[in-house]
Write a structure and sequence with these properties.
mainly alpha; globular; single chain
Length: 342
C-alpha cells in the first residue's frame, strides 16, 4: 500500500520535471502550431528536423572533443596562463579563454580562486571576457548554423575582447582603480563543479576513472546539446514562419552603426545561451538582420547573460562589475562594426 500511495506523487514529480525541460517546450510549441495553424505544422517540423540533422555532425564532433578535454584534464592548461609576467598573462588568458572547456558555472569559482590567490585582475578580466564567448563546441555549433566565416570571426572577437579588457583594466589599475576587487571568496562552485586539479594526461584511456569521466561527459553533453539545439531550431522555424521580415529589417537591418548598437543592447537581456543563439540568429539574418548586428547581439548576450551578471555581481565589487559590463558592451559594438566592414 505504501508503494501505491507514493506512486502518484512520484509520477507527479516526474511529470512536473518534464514540463520544465526543453523537450516539453518543443512538444508544447508543435502542439500549438498543430491546433492554431495545422496547415503550417509540416513546414515547421520539417524545417526544424532538417536543420537539426544538418548540425548533427557538428554536435557529434563537439561532444567528442569536449569529453576528451574534460577527461584529459585540460583545465590545467588554463591555470598555467596565470603564471609569469602580467603582459604574458593577459595574452595567454585571452587565448585560453576561447579554449577552456568550462561550463558557465565552472568559470566563476575558477576566477574567484585566481583572484583570491593574487592573480592580477587584468589577466583574470581577459579570461573572464573571452571565456563565455567561445569554446570548441560553441565554435562548431556556430559554424554549422551560421558558417565558418562567422564562427571564426566570433572566435577572433572573443580573443580580441579579452585582450582589450585585460589591457584596459591594467591601465586603470595603474591609475589606482580596482583595489581589492573581490567582495568575498567562497571556494565552492555554484553547482559543485569547480575547477578540477587533475594532472594533464592526453592519453586519458590509460586510467579507468578518466574513461568513466569521458563516457559521463559524452552522454551529459550530448543530451544537453541535442535538447537545446532541437528547441533552437523549432524556435527558428517559428521565427521564419511568423515574424515579418520587414520588422526585423527595421530594427536591426540596414547599414551603419545604429543597428549594431541596438542589437548589442537588445542582446543583453534577450540572450539564451551559446547553443541556442546561432540557429536563432540564422533565422534573423534570413529575415534581414545584418551580419554586424548578429555578431554584436551574440557577443553582448554572452557577456551579459543573466546568470553571468548575477555571478559577477555576487563575486566582485560594483566598480569591477561596471567595468565588466562596459567592456563587454563596447567590445561587442566594436566587433559588430568591424565584422560588418570586413
Amino acid at each position: 500500500m505504501a508503494e501505491l500511495t507514493q506512486s502518484p506523487k512520484a509520477v507527479g514529480q516526474t511529470l512536473s520535471g518534464l514540463l520544465k525541460t526543453p523537450w516539453a517546450l518543443i512538444v508544447a510549441i508543435l502542439v500549438l502550431v498543430a491546433i492554431l495553424d495545422p496547415g503550417n505544422w509540416v513546414n515547421v517540423t520539417t524545417f526544424a528536423a532538417k536543420a537539426l540533422v544538418h548540425t548533427g555532425q557538428y554536435i557529434l564532433f563537439a561532444v567528442l572533443l569536449l569529453s576528451y578535454l574534460k577527461a584529459s584534464g585540460a583545465e590545467t592548461m588554463v591555470a598555467r596562463a596565470f603564471e609569469g609576467r602580467e603582459t604574458r598573462m593577459i595574452l595567454l588568458a585571452a587565448l585560453f579563454g576561447g579554449l577552456a572547456p568550462f561550463c558557465s558555472c565552472e568559470v566563476i569559482p575558477f576566477i574567484a580562486g585566481l583572484l583570491a590567490l593574487g592573480a592580477p585582475l587584468s589577466a583574470v578580466m581577459a579570461f573572464w571576457l573571452s571565456s563565455p564567448l567561445i569554446d570548441p563546441p560553441t565554435l562548431l555549433i556556430t559554424a554549422g548554423a551560421l558558417g565558418w566565416p562567422f564562427a571564426i570571426g566570433k572566435a577572433v572577437a572573443a580573443v580580441a575582447l579579452g585582450l582589450f579588457g585585460g589591457f584596459a583594466v591594467r591601465f586603470l589599475m595603474r591609475q589606482g582603480a580596482f583595489a581589492q576587487p573581490l567582495r568575498h571568496y567562497e571556494p565552492a562552485g555554484c553547482c559543485g563543479c569547480g575547477p578540477k586539479k587533475d594532472t594533464l594526461l592526453w592519453r586519458f584511456w590509460q586510467e579507468p576513472e578518466r574513461r568513466v569521466r569521458f563516457r559521463r561527459e559524452f552522454v551529459q553533453n550530448g543530451l544537453f546539446l541535442l535538447k537545446w539545439l532541437a528547441l533552437a531550431y523549432v524556435l527558428e522555424a517559428l521565427l521564419v514562419s511568423y515574424v515579418p521580415a520587414d520588422l526585423i529589417a527595421r530594427l536591426v537591418g540596414g547599414e551603419g552603426a545604429l543597428p549594431i548598437v541596438i542589437a548589442a543592447f537588445v542582446g543583453m537581456p534577450a540572450y539564451l545561451n551559446s547553443y541556442v543563439a546561432p540557429p536563432l540568429l540564422a533565422g534573423l539574418m534570413e529575415q534581414g538582420m545584418s551580419a554586424g548586428a548578429a555578431m554584436s547581439f551574440m557577443i553582448a548576450g554572452a557577456v551579459s547573460s543573466i546568470p553571468a551578471m548575477a555571478a559577477v555581481w555576487s563575486l566582485v565589487k560594483p566598480r569591477v562589475f561596471a567595468a565588466y559590463i562596459g567592456l563587454g558592451i563596447s567590445g561587442a559594438i566594436a566587433a559588430g562594426i568591424l565584422f560588418q566592414l570586413l
